Protein 1
Amino acid sequence: MLESRGRSATITLLLFGAVLFVIVEHDHLVQAGQLTEEFTWTRLDYAWALKGRFGGYRPNYIYGGSDFAFPGAASSGSSKPISTPTDDNKQPDGNVDFIYENNIPMGANRWRDKLFITVPRRRAGVPSTLNYVSISNKERHNVPLIPYPNWEVNQLSSDPSNRIVSVYRIAVDVCDRMWMVDTGIVELPGNRTDIQQQSVVIIDLKTDKIIKRHPLPASVLKPASILALVTVDVTKDTCDDAYAYLPDLAGYGLIVYSLKADRSWRVTHNYFFLESLAGEFNVGGQHFQWNDGVFSVALSEIKSDGFRDMYFHSMAGTHLYVVSTRILRDEALATRSYHGNDFTNLGDRGPLSQTSATDLHKPSGVLFLSLVNQNALGCWNTNIPFGKENFHVIQRDDKKMIYPCDLKVYGDDLILLTNNMPIFLYSKLNYDETNFRVWFSSVANAISGTQCESRRTNRGNRYYG
């Protein structure tokens, strides 16, 4: 993700943007079904415990320009700590240093009563990258994050075989397992620090134990590789034969991991690159250029041939593509230099349809899209022919839904995380206001009254302007 203050957006895009602005500016909120704010935070904090089940860690608050533990890095210089540490409130090796301004949630997912929240180490002072809150918690605002599976696993000083360094987003499969990519990187601005090899990590959610770690070989990675999302292809009857798909948004490729073979391979195709005319963003009052390629993938129900369709897109792009997992799961087919007709360009979703995360509700065939350039959630029913007129905005809010960064379908429910990230990156968040929100809705409620609900014609709230 690169910042650019230049004015290189095309006239066509700006004109379409103006038309869309005229259509929706009369009301910052556009909605079909209603998503509700379930958890909100002005700033993140953690369940610091003196003793007991959470491991006995306390925060070592850093503020006022104190040095951070990594060489060449400095704190963001917050004006005040959240609370004043006591004399015995010191952490071993400085690896539980805490700078609240540097903690931003990037992923949300659910398993039973746990709502998982990931906080990648994009800056110094992130005490725990993998966390959860209890959904049954009566408190819904500024609930402290509980490190998962415990504090020790989230500490940089822990044994590398039982340590998680940095995670962007996670997947939860039907076999009660959590999947993630541990990037192994602390992304200090101007001083990227590689802690350990990037790996696929699997946790048994019933035992809270890491049951698999697959270090990704150099042959499947590029120097610029960023693996920010994972999607799992599995059924309850094939738990030992699962596949994971890892979009490489900066290396412009897709990594496939076979659990049964414990082997990974890299797929290349031109459709994984950015689209040069779709890299302009205007989000939360911030104007910037990003060059992210393939960002997320979504899987259909199993088809008659025993495989699924995989829908994918670039973040800096407005087209949608599809390929059968029959190709991806076969290493020989997936890695051949020429793919012929394996991949299909379904078409252009329209201006301002740049999307971060997607997910697909398999029973209904509805694909949900996080529309970052519109602060909105969109949808398309894959049972309906592809066309701009068949894409819908479900809900848009230019104040509360700034930058929808993660989206998950859990059973028949939706989970959406919005986090104000462009303001975090290019300006400054106001930590006296709510910045981070997790939204819930049932799928049925979300698509009610939209073109995604059925085949009937409904031309309202189309997101292409």
Protein 2
Amino acid sequence: MVCDAAPTAGRSESGDPASSHGQTLSHHQGPDPKPSTKEHSIDRFCYQYLQMVSPPEYPPGDLVKSSRVQNEIFERIFAAQSAPPPKMARLQLRALKELVQRIQESVGDDESDEYAVSDEFMHRIGELMSMPRTSELDEAQHKCIVSYRLSLLEPPAMIDILENRSLIAASGTTGLRTWEAGLHLGQYLCMNGHLVRGKRVLELGAGTGYLSVLCAKYLGAAHVTATDGYEEVVDSLSDNLALNNVQWSYDPSPLTSDATVCPKLLKWGHALMGTEEESWNRGQKVHLVLGADITYDQRANPPLVATLRELLHLFPDAKILVAATQRNETTSVVFRELCSQNGLCLEEHAFSLDQIPKHVPDRDVLTPYYTLSMPIHIYYISLAGRPDGPS
């Protein structure tokens, strides 16, 4: 059976990922907490640039022409990137040229003695233009650090992810970039931190490890097992864990390691326990299972549902939260029907970012940024007969 409960009171659905690369994110996940101000426009531009939003929302020229603002922008996002990799060099050059153009267009003839493009901007442009050029095709083969700022944390914090938004590995995995469903589920968890705090978390289809880092470093998880079905993705998880100073180990036992995250290969549909094993994952209990954008491939849904069912039989008190982007109605229906056929109950916890701004300080802007062109559903999945949902 599929227990289609009504959306949680006061919340509604929103969100999307897959096809967002290259789209303008002029309106992220919801309205800004307060009417836009000039100072907010500087923050917004810097955060979007660091998150590699393309194109970012540039602050108005009459603001950027100020030497103080130019210095602030340079120190916040360009100063630390003195020798960027080719892809970042291209993005940095594009951003600097756009800023210079806006400054020049905003300076009137009678203001030329008062305002000018900063020496730092012009010097950096010269450096970037003298760098060896590489083709965009070659650039697409390399990863860059993408910085996601989480304004719902107190204080706001950054998660740095080494990823490639334009590359799908030869194995076919899409786990080399962070998708919008992961960002959306991350916002939900930031607002419902009690679901993670002190819990042992298992992430399915961890990809870049964004949610695992969030839970382990900022939401107080006791331990996180970050799993994926592709060895290439599991191997790369350690890079992002180290990048965020998160202790990790391939050994899940707390008796042998102080690590808070354990990267692990987990292929859906394969039995979690072999005939010679007394327990799964060294007997470590699981309280919360997370999955973001793991239902998009209809072919992968049967083994995924089998794994969800086995996990709930192994850990009947565990909660499962899945964020699913609805790219087409058929995929959503197939997943729901498979859950019903396997004795799993789905309860949708509709989550709208419209109510988030009241949680964001007046001085702040809502981050991270992601598009809303397709809805993102958040499902609580349980064994039929136990649809009590997160609490």
Protein 3
Amino acid sequence: MPDRNKLKIWKASKLIIVAVIIVLVSTIIIEWKDYSSQSTNYRLNKWMWVPTKNYICRDGSTSGFITKNGTGNSLVIFLSPGGSCFNSVTCIASKNKFNVKSYNKFKKAIIEKKDIFSDSPQDNPFYDADFLILPYCTGDLHSGTNSWGRFKNQLKRQQFVGRNNIECSINIFKKMNGLKKYDKVILWGESAGGFGSLINFDYIASQFPDSKFTMFINSGPMLLGNNIYTNCMRRCLINLYKIKIPDDYHKYINDINKYAFKEQGFYEYVANKYPENKFIILSSEYDWVMRNFYGFGQSNCNPWVTTIDSMNYNAALRNLKHNLNDYHNWHVEIGNGSNHIYKMDEIMSFDSLAMLLTEP
């Protein structure tokens, strides 16, 4: 009987080993086929969904990025909008997954409506560019490195890994693209993507060292006044999302005591480190979405909204513009009204922006 039991155990072990080998080999083949197919079809000048196992959403599900190969020698990196997750209310409004179904919806609702994705030279100055679209499903302003995030009264794990997603996406994109060198890279961030563009600019620029950059923040300014950008909002970025401060940050900040929080010095940091590049902010004077976002800071980031008064927001925005006037490569444009996120035709109606975005 003991010999029979040993034989059964040995046979069961063999089956388990064979099953594991099959799973591993199948995974390798599937991944190889996916990557090979993407590489082959990439030259067809069509939008492509690229599933990426290391692109992780807030709920732990895998996601990917969207790309298109154009006919020109410029690249648009688009950081999508979508809110910020730091309490029970804001996390409901912030997406926690983005899959192939999400891509199909995004393509129909956003890409096919053209705008910055238009291939018409009359409608879009970047019509012939390559595109890398980074979907937003981490709720961390595209900037987190915390895979075990939790906030007050939230027991469920939140993966705030937007920065990690940027890194893995660019790495794969460059390989797919044959390490192509671009004359110009446009880093375009909308709302949450605007914050992400500023916070991650140094890393992204380091990945395309031979390219000139234009960074465009569309309705997502990080304001400087501590009465608007409060300590609890700072804790979200530093403690909850765990954003990265560049190693050489101090080297490019003239007065380290000027800023209450280090991340407020990102404007000066990129201006001084990248003097040949251009940085642009466009925001409406009373942006209602940003006033609600910063309003949470007035209640210690608890789950109830205290909307920032329109005049206070306007004053903080103009204070930011005044501070950035010290740098030749920063340009802040303040539009009328309270709308959030400008369309391409609205952007190009500002003569200064049309010139900055279209010049070499």
Protein 4
Amino acid sequence: VPATYISSLELTNFRSDDAGNFVCYAENIHGVASVTLHVQVEELTVYNTSVCCQKQNVSQECRHTCSVDVDIQAALGKPECVKDLDKLMFCATDGRDHRKCCKSRGVPKSCLKWCVGRPVFSAPMCVLIAANDIVSCFEEGKAVIPGPPENLRVAQLSPRVIQVKWDPPLQNPQFVEWYRVIWKREGSDSRTTNQTTKAVLQVTDLTPGITYQLFVKAGNHYGVSDKTKPVKFTASDDSTFLKHSDAAADIAVKVVSSVVAVAFVILLTAGGVYVLKRNKRQTSTGVSFENPTFLKDSISLQNTIPPTTEAGVDKIGELGDGQLDSSESQVNNTRAISNLYEEPKHI
């Protein structure tokens, strides 16, 4: 007769250095079987839910259940706290959706709203038939389910396309396996969903002039976070978007033109200063010496200009014997007598 045997092993005082692979090995007369389980130790994160309970206006006689984490078991033991159970359950979820775990534990559909922090129709009934299982899912989920994404923002890329960006969740960001982006027309129950592994997504095929609501969730195979606070946006039509785009382009052109004009003025100023300094050096007349005390009176000396070459033809040419052409004349040139410090300079 087939039979099923369930065995369990409880490890106490488990530490981080105990993490690793554990092998379960079974053998009987019919054969052997084994399975390997990898165990990883994560640091326990404690969340202070007292602020949440204060915002939810939990009564003073039940406020002690929110000192560090929500102690649902303590609240269940006090009849005066039954009226606050919806609020306590909301804080106990800590921004996560635990319905997957609750369903696996057989929590009735009428009580599943507590698993995501929403009010139920009959709190006393859910306390009796599902409270313990719901609390167990809360404890399991806090260690592995990510919280909601942060800083959700929307930017329009073109008349029918927007880009959605967000930051990783504060709770368990290392366990995020995917993000789920959900949007719908304002006032409509029809939703569109897209899933991505990155913290950015482009939403296309929007209708210009229509207002949309959009929110994001983070999740993994253990469960999903609560949704972010929805953002509203209106898709701009072609003319409006192009008008804004043209305005931005005009501003950019004006900025670039201003920069070019300033650079041109600077170059002109620098060039003008350079030319003035150069002309000032070159426009001085007469004889110039570095030491004026050696300037002598000019003496007229006869200086025969040597034959010059023009276009590769010697000007001595026709008369030969080194004599000058009758058309050429001797020129008297005035020059300064050389001194000990520099060579003569022709004027």
